[in-house]
User: Fold these one by one.
Assistant:
Number 1:
Amino acid sequence: MRDFEIINENLRNALAAFSYVRHSGEVGETPGASLVHAGVNYSLFNTALLTEPVPGGPVPFSKVLDEAESFFRKRSAPWSLWFCDDLFTSSERRRSRISMATRGLRLMMEAPGMIARQISEPDRALPEFDCRPVGDARTRADFSRIMSEAFQVPPGMADDVYSGEHLWQGPLRGFIAYVNDEPVSTTGIVAGGDSIGVYAVATMPRMQRRGYGEALMRRAIHLVRLETGITRSVLQSSAAGYQLYLRMGYRNVTRFSVYVKA
């Protein structure tokens, strides 16, 4: 697979992990897309991810949108469309914007897709911390709290998604850095598509710019690499983390776009 396809395949696995948020969650496959209903009323967790090129896939892009709309309408769920720009030709990308606009899909965010065959050694001393896996009630609550404060997400929304036990029984693995028994940073890992996907990298605002996010991310990748033998890792970068990821050996190879439908 090409680099962007590796990243897209890992993202497919990561988005599918949110079908574990509720017992009512489900994953549906339709020609050209992977559909995930998380069982919650938040569009970013009810997702349609494009999985085939446009044009050249099994069905036209408009048909993919029709199937996604039908899937989520039956579940009365707001949803979002995720796609890698490299799955579109330049001319089809322009046409796709018209198709999305006529369906009420609006651009919410764009993020570089990055890949590293193996991350580089740190170029600075990193802080010490206690690394704990997410699993029990306390770590689930702490993960949710950091998500809320770092990303300015309403606490109730973060709790709905991250504090339940069922989510953590799926492919998403969470890690938390503690300092003096206080939660500081999070990293989420999904191994899939022959790569380690890095997600939910966040640090409590008062502890940012001290290296905890990088240190925990490195630890989490190392632990999963020991278990799986996979050395390649992928991520979608925020603006805040972009320069750090370049220093860690990641390359920007594509771009992902997310459109939401209320």
Number 2:
Amino acid sequence: MKRRRHTHWPHELASIGAMRFARRSSNFEETVRFYRELVGLPLFETFGDSFGSNGAIFGLPSWNLTLEIVESVDTVAVDHHEQLCLYFPDQPAQQAAIARLREAAIEPVQQHPYWEAVGAVTFRDPDGREVVFAPFVY
């Protein structure tokens, strides 16, 4: 049985109220659709021409943690280590989460040997970033 990790948040950062992760997207509309309709992330807000940018803000498991996708006019280079890893408590929960992707005929991609060994399933978003569905909580 794997023990849960306990980390202590640094005192200097204790007053942080929220955290956001942002990525640029060369395929903005398709990427927003992918995360909203196929992955199932709740879309909190969209914005247009906000200081020159268009974007979408998705909710993650905690209300104060969000993922922002910002439209890019240029092609965005994607590194193969740019992953969004979603950890589920078990395989049935993992399989339920990927059902929409399978129903949409989205095929899993070849994945890192670690993910293969632990039973994860990996898909690519329209920009080529990997979304990993793991059947355990890290």
Number 3:
Amino acid sequence: MNTLQNVSSEFYRVSDAFASKGSGVFLVFILSLSTLAFASIILRVSSTDRVHGRLPPGSFGFPFIGESIQYYASQKDMDALGWFKKKREKYGPLFKSRVDGFKTILLDSPGGWKFMYSEFDENVIRVLYPPTVRDLTGPDSPIIKHGRVHRVYKSFLLNHFSGVDVVHRYIPTIGKVAVDHINSLWLSRSDNSEVKAQELLQEFTFSIIGILILGITDSSVLEDLRPKFEEFVNGFVRVSFRLNLPGFQYHRSMKARSQIHEILQRSLVKRRAELEEGKATSTQDYLSVMLTHSNEDGYFYRDAEIRDIMLNLLWAGFESTATTMTMMMMHISRNPQVYDELIKEHAGIASKKAEGEALTLQELRSMKYTWAVMQETLRVSPSSADINRVAMVDLEYKGFTIPKGYRLTAAAGQSQWNPDRFPDPTKFDPSRFVTKTGTRSIEPYIFFPFGSGLRHCPGYELARINTMTLFHHLLRNVKWTMVYLEEKCRYRFLFYPEKGLPIRITKCKAY
């Protein structure tokens, strides 16, 4: 690892040690500043690594912070033509920088993305998350595991919960929850009521995931969990002092994690007793599956592992899908022609069905334009603005050396916001992904809304089905307008409207 990463690791270790002993906030703060000053001195004295080869062109910027401020500023407002464009003009499509304390190689697209995603040996290139993410998701979280442990668990998840064939069995349940959700939280309000779309959509996706993984049908349980998850997800920031002391976000988020674990453990104990008494079945939800099924190695997951797995699934259900739906509503509201095309597509489906009849898999698959709108939403407002890996060995790419310990980054600004890949990238245009005759093919390795390779999102199909179903019923019954048409977006591990997308809603019968 390079000098800064070693110093940063020592800083986190020492500050955590002081925090755990209950030392004063001021003392820890002084320690933090002293350590960072020490890191800067070391970087000035030893500003280069011993690299056997030629690094890509670029600049590491200031000591410690590097170019992190400019990098994240370019993401805040989905700045497709700013920082990244200047970098490409100066250095070419492949360049180095320093972000989040890591010496980083910003990979070109499609070549660099293919180079990163096509490497399946995690002893060569490995997934990389910020320390706070590793702490909050937990030591038994599947996302931080590597090698066979990760592969075997992902296979278990796909076979028993989120694989395409499994998800299709959930379609009736998802449809019922969507209708109930719209009736109770949207149609029950008077016309021109103002609501925050993000909050309502989080409630929908949280209900779905709560039912599917824990069998929770009691809304009071979800109401108890939700504020804890709101505090929990506030800790998912890129650079954070991991100070487990009152008054710091890290402390609040770790406390919320403990509270969620307590609730999950109670559910686990209760379900185990129900299974023993014959009051629950081994396949009624994912919790039952995990308690009664071994993985392909014959291993049964421990309670601690199950808690972290459930926590991660609830987090994904609470945050990512709901945020994508929120951004879809924002883009639809700003583009009336997109709304009109959606109404046309869904009216055609509804015209062939009886009132109240559930959607079928075939009908969900026929929603080509809706899927294009979702894809364009993920292009403009991706679930993640970058995907990061770390080089476990020295790598060679296009005549350049990428040293061990360097971060490899596939960034939206290099591809889906790049006018060389998507002309007029700031324009919201679903026709990039669909034609009048069907789906439009996209050049390989320029757009990965759900990741790729070993880390392809296992919840991809569930997110797609949830979104298609919800919008079919929402478009039919509700019209909305944004309260703040020019509402800005923020980036905190995900893109989301900074005010939560306040909208005014009116009941309708569009089809």
Number 4:
Amino acid sequence: MEHTLENPVVVEFPLRGEGWMAVTTPAHRVPSHGTDMLGQRYAYDFLKVDRRKGVHFHPAGMLRGELIGGRTRESYAWGAPIHAPFDAEVVRAVDGMPEREWIHPARELAHMIKNAVTFRPEKLPSILGNHVILRSGDVYAALVHMAPGSVAVAEGQRVATGDLLGRVGHTGNSTSPHLHFQLMDSADPMTAQGIACAFRAYEVERGGEWVRVENGIPGSRERIRSA
């Protein structure tokens, strides 16, 4: 059965707490990342932001952030726990990839563009950074860009929904600490097709109040929290 936005696979939201924002989501466009490559057709990018208007993922002010940047570990999302979205087998667990200690928007964007333009299959680990891939039946989940030393599972291990997998980081093709999350039909992103997914329950801030959403697909730049 093909899983599209009209018939998504429903999984648990893999993050905890509030302040999360889907800056890339299939609710906005498909393919969400502008390409079907690497199984990304329905992929999400989740940042953690503060209360300021816009998308502020770091306490640095806008001017300082654009001119100087800031420490990676001071970003709101950095180090946040990432949990298993369903009962699964760990088919890939990669750790040990280094992390850039300082975020500068222009440099990070240039780094990402360079990786995209010069991409070759053998460079895939440098794109994904530290990551975990899970399998449940014919559905695979990729949770990408984890912090160095944070991957908490091993290949072949069984995990239950909610188990700790690792922590949000800034490894691989990342412009700031965030979680890249996607479902796909294969453990190999090079050949995988993306699978649409919705989250069983989360809350959205609307008009100063939190509203529960079930089996939903987070909208672009909605402020969300775990239910």
